[in-house]
Amino acid sequence: MKKFILIGLLLGAAGMVCAQEVQEVKEIQALTPDSVSADSASVESLELVPMTAADSLVTEDTAVEITPLQPFYTLWNDSDLTDIELRSLDWSLQWLDTTDCVSVHDTTVLSDSVYKARLQALPCVIELPYNERVRAFIIRYVKHNPKQVARLMRMSEYYFPIFEEALARYDLPYELKYVPIIESALNPMARSHAGAAGLWQFMPATGKLFGLEVNSLVDERMDPIKSTEAACRFLSSMYSIYHDWNLVIAAYNCGSGNVNKAIRRSGGKRDFWSIYPFLPRETRNYVPIFIAANYAMNYGQEHGICKALIEQKVLITDTIRTTQRLHLHQLSKNLDIEMDELRRLNPQYSRDILPGGKSYALCLPADKMGLYIDHADSIAAYKADSLINNRRAEIDLAKMTSVNGAYRVNGVTYYTIKRGDTLGGIAKKFHCSVKQLKQWNGLKNDNIREGKKLKICR
Known about the structure:
By secondary structure, the protein is an alpha+beta fold. α10 (224-242) packs across α11, α11 (245-254) crosses α12 (256-265) and α11 (245-254) crosses α14.
């Protein structure tokens, strides 16, 4: 059993659209200008600018500073944000209290040189360059949404150790742990209107491609540990193709196909800021938001933002694996755990059912684990027929009998009343009594009508 500490996971809804379905890794080839063709179906979603404009986007040292992008966009405001960005920045969580934090919040806007110097001081592998677009999102986080940052700073205590452990095993930059901040606002149960789900917002096909079980009963995209493992595999595979982390992050948002087309249209350049004008609008904002999230999570305290207080109790949880078919209602009633709490601890079971047949993880409050182990069989038997054994394994087809065209289904014979039939005559044909016929069919008298059906339950 694996023991770890989680907050009660009382998270609000914050769905995000994320990485679109990718081609199988074995089919994705290193890109050259001649190896990618434009897809006319997606051209309409791109806002193209002349090649000379793209060439002017990048200075010789993009790690220090990016040339301001003013010629290619209007300065940021609320109406300029896509739906994905608004949901990324304007979400709400109810289980943390930020009152004390915002009372001392510093709303001062700093000079560009301070923001740039702070980004450059971060111990990161991924380049975090500064420009006016990045500045707009930094201000959005630390000035206009301090409660959001306060909540994320507190929630990161529970999720970042999971992310960092997996990133370390795959030798990936730790700053990738900020991707779920802009994908799901660290909500493991987040679902987007496009069908993406979980902390890392995998689409179903992408999740399956990277080893997650996704079906009607189980959705491991909601499992923080397994989805993080899958995300690391995805990010690692993308880096083996692009060898540039900002391009990997862009591909996570819009898919490798859109990134490949942008590279082609830029004349083969393989730098995010060089292909910036050729990317979908949402993706052009995605990397600046990622950079701003890095800044906000590392320098929030310098802006007077403190970690949100915890209103709900901290749960010490324990995880066990079981092959039993279980319904969370069985656990709720027998272990005295609220269904909402069980769902938050086991978000991957989308219909409250552990399918059984193979080993599945079950997360419970630690103080309930011993009780479950001692009574596992009786818990699995509790209302099993109505909760989990109510699916018929076999259905008998209607079979004709030799008695006047009657037919039999699942042990019951059905007879269609004909002209001249009486209850006594029908009872005689089927070797039963008139009283039995009345009981089986809810009849109060001997009156019957031609064309109606009678049940013979023997």
